[in-house]
Specification:
Layout lengths: L3 H12 L5 H40 L5 E5 L7 H9 L4 E16 L2 E10 L1 H4 L9 E3 L11 E5 H7 L6 E12 L2 E15 L4 H4 L2 E5 H8 L7 E6 L5 H11 L4 E5 H4 L1 H39 L1 H9 L4 H32 L1 H12 L6 H4 L10 H18 L1 H8 L3 H4 L4
Parallel strand pairs: 3-8, 5-7
Antiparallel strand pairs: 1-9, 1-10, 2-3, 2-6, 2-9, 4-7, 5-8, 6-7
Length: about 425
């Protein structure tokens, strides 16, 4: 392919004006088609990466990176476990918590939720709750005052606002002289948060850890210790190391365990979307076959003359491989540059289109975001570029093989 004759003639054929202008038109269409396919692939994958990153950050805004739990659900020596976890070099913060399912009621409205008891002193070391507070603050949850912070959707379902009373009913009973009674307690709504994920906005309420322990009859025990790491992608490895260092006395989980199916679905969605969009490049690459086939037919006499002067069939074959690879490389390069430019400025482009046509692509009231996120990953750009070029190179083989089999005598018979 890199023989001087093959390279020289192949590049000359690429630059030269055709006697048949239709061949030039098809060459341009195939190059632009590959470029367009690469642009679409890079842009869509970047936008999907942006959405996945947005979802991940919102989940981790309420969920910890790691979680150390007692095997029986009752951790009495949690202070020691928390100190041991903090000794790991990747652990940035740790906070105890009490968690359990409960029913919340206000007037005639009743709904289920997870009531999480947190320590305001340590909770900010694990999650960024303050960034999601609409009203109130985490510091309002003082022990003994029985205050509660609700997700926005949960507050809307119950029809409550800050200052209203909510009754929390846990699935435990208290035996009294009057018989068995469910355990319940009235809490005052002191704050409302919004993460942008229905799982939390609709299903989570926070109270002080001591109030939750009293409600769950845990005394000084807790459900577990939540951790924050310096690298979320190291959570699985860190959980294994912590489980080993804690001598198997506790169950150590990480954020991927809680949302394994969800993130697996997102990963599969990205793969399938990328595969389907790659067919745009495949269709464009087929135009290279058409271009080269017509070029071989158009250059029959030239091929015959080259072979007559001593060019080997392999050299003739490489001429058309060079030509097709050049078209593919130009289309891929243009597509990568244009795709990066579009992906990096997609927010401005979408805003301009919305303003120009008076439409709205993303409704914040539905999607919880007001802009189209984009996260350009080098690995995706590399795979798209390499895949596009290799596909273009593959499409040159059939026409080049036809040139390889051209017989000089047959080609020059009617010249």
């Amino acid at each position: 392919m890199y023989h001087p004759l093959s390279l020289f003639v192949g590049l000359r054929y690429t630059r030269s004006r055709r006697r048949n202008h239709f061949i030039s038109f098809i060459s341009l269409i195939s190059t632009l088609g590959i470029a367009l396919g690469v642009v679409v692939l890079i842009t869509v994958l970047s936008v999907m990466n942006g959405f996945h990153k947005e979802v991940r950050e919102r989940i981790l805004g309420m969920a910890s990176h790691g979680d150390v739990q007692a095997l029986d659900g009752r951790m009495t020596d949690w202070r020691r476990a928390m100190e041991q976890a903090r000794e790991h070099p990747r652990v940035l913060g740790a906070a105890p918590y009490v968690e359990g399912q409960a029913m919340l009621s206000h007037r005639r409205e009743v709904t289920g939720a997870i009531v999480r008891g947190v320590d305001p002193e340590f909770e900010s070391q694990v999650v960024d709750v303050a960034e999601h507070m609409i009203s109130g603050s985490l510091s309002d949850l003082q022990a003994g005052e029985f205050r509660i912070i609700l997700g926005r959707e949960l507050a809307n379902v119950l029809g409550v606002a800050v200052g209203d009373k909510v009754t929390v009913i846990v699935p435990q009973i208290t035996v009294t002289v009057a018989g068995s009674m469910p355990r319940l307690k009235r809490f005052t709504v002191s704050g409302i948060f919004e993460v942008g994920m229905g799982e939390y906005d609709r299903g989570v309420a926070m109270v002080n850890i001591r109030d939750a322990a009293l409600l769950q009859q845990l005394d000084d025990a807790v459900t577990g210790v939540r951790l924050r790491l310096d690298d979320v992608w190291m959570a699985r490895q860190v959980s294994f190391e912590l489980a080993e260092s804690l001598n198997g006395r506790y169950r150590v989980l990480n954020w991927t365990d809680y949302h394994r199916n969800f993130f697996a679905a997102l990963k599969m969605e990205k793969r399938m979307m990328g595969l389907l969009l790659f067919f745009i490049v495949v269709i464009a690459a087929f135009n290279i076959v058409s271009t080269l086939v017509m070029m071989v037919v158009d250059k029959q006499s030239d091929i015959a003359i080259l072979k007559t002067f001593g060019a080997s069939p392999g050299q003739v074959m490489r001429i058309f491989i060079v030509q097709g690879a050049t078209l593919g490389a130009i289309g891929t390069l243009v597509g990568v540059v244009a795709g990066l430019a579009l992906a990096l400025n997609i927010e401005s482009v979408v805003a301009a289109v919305e303003q120009l046509f008076g439409i709205q692509f993303i409704d914040p009231s539905i999607y919880y975001i007001a802009k189209l996120p984009s996260d350009v990953q080098v690995g995706d750009v590399f795979l798209v570029g390499i895949g596009s070029f290799l596909l273009s190179l593959l499409m040159t083989l059939a026409p080049a093989w036809r040139a390889y089999r051209t017989q000089p005598a047959e080609a020059l018979r009617y010249e």
